[in-house]
Amino acid sequence: MDQPLTPAVPANARVGLLVRLEAKPEHAQELEELLTGALPLAEEESGTTVWFALRLGPTTFGIFDAFANEEARRAHVEGKIAAVLRSEGPRLLAAKPEIGPHDVLAAKLPTA
Length: 112
Fold this sequence. Notes:
It is a single chain. By secondary structure, the chain is α+β, with helices and mostly antiparallel strands. Helix content is 33%, strand content 27%. The chain has helices spanning 28-37, 39-44, 70-77, 80-92, and strands at residues 15-22, 48-55, 60-67, 98-103. The protein has a 4-stranded antiparallel sheet.
């Protein structure tokens, strides 16, 4: 459900995704390269307000992103980055990704 607009919740970052990825140890570097290489794909997505690829540990990675609404979030889940992860995931990942949709409660974003 979309978060109501308040001064603490920017209109362009009301909902998001938090994804946790556990790489097979022998593929951690390759997963890192896949994620850093996905930045141009995220930049192509007009509905993706913010997108972060994260290293949480030696073999643990994450993605955090935010969107204005559910439609933009759904477009991202059906987009190119998700397609690459679905394609390469079985080879690179030690476990199925943990994907958690979330509502943004407050955010500080850069201003133009």
